[in-house]
Amino acid sequence: MGDVPYGTSSIAPLDDMIGEMNAQPLTFVVHVGDITSGRGPCGDDWLEARKAQFARIRAPFVLLPGDNEWTDCHRGGFDPLERLAKWRSLFCFPLESISLERQQGKYCENVRWIAGNHVFVGVNIPGSNNNLDRDPAETGERMRAVFAWLDAAEALARRHDGLVVMMQANPFVKPRSGGANGYTGVLERLERLGRAMPGKVLLVNGDTHTFKDDEPLPGLRRVEVFGWPQIRWVRARIEPGAAPFRVEAMPP
Fold first, then answer.
1. What secondary structure does DSSP assign to 196-245, as a single string?
2. Spatial separation of the C-alpha atoms in residues 157 and 152, rounded to whole Å
3. DSSP result, the chain
4. Tens of pLDDT along 7-29?
């Protein structure tokens, strides 16, 4: 799931969706980011309330950061890097139940685990052009860590059956500013993965709020999860065969 909740009106529907997920035998649940709207709330109270809400999820739960909870918080007068530090203090917790690994050092939000003989890797690549327009130095430093983490995940995946890459941003969206594309390096990396491991790489993203199940690059399957105002989730299975990922959009 992703891009939910977007303000107080979506808190109760999200609670209902969590109840639906809890009725399923899920191995784990991933939220690909954006747990507030592009205009906030961004404060501590909101983030802490979301942590308490997500604690109701019975399956092991992994959250990735989105642009709305840090890069876009400048709109409300917050310092984006301070907000990301707060996010890390709340959500960089261990998950021994799925042997979750976090990247050592500053970027603890980058995660990795193995399930169904596939490598799952989550990275901090947010919307809003990957923060390149506002803070190119931050983007450059973070992406060096992201690419190193992806390199390690790719090497690990070659000893397994496939790779699932998860991020908040839809990297196929062009920047609104018309300037440099903050996802150029990401697209190059995804294209390379699709060529090297055709049919064995799945990208999961959020950001543009429309469910998609397509092949935007040769050899790369992409699933975009629902987002507000559609408070829905996507269930995926790994099955033996040439197309191992079975994806099902759950009804509202």
1. HSTTSEEEEE-SS---EEEEEETTEEEEEPP-TT----EEEEE-SSSS-E
2. 9
3. --S---SGGGHHHHHHHHHHHHTS--S-EEE-S--SBTTB--SHHHHHHHHHHHTT--S-EEE---GGGTGGGGGGT--HHHHHHHHHHHH----GGGT-EE-SSS-TT-EEEEETTEEEEE----HHHHTTTT-HHHHHHHHHHHHHHHHHHHHHHTTSSEEEEEESS-TTSPPTTSS--TTHHHHHHHHHHHHHSTTSEEEEE-SS---EEEEEETTEEEEEPP-TT----EEEEE-SSSS-EEEEEPP-
4. 999 999 999 999 999 999 999 99
Indicate whether this model's pTM tops 0.90. yes
Strands 201-205 and 162-167: parallel
Q: Which residue has the tokens 């603890």?
A: 108
pLDDT digits (tens, 9 = 90+) for 96-152: 999 999 999 999 999 999 999 999 999 999 999 999 999 999 999 999 999 999 999
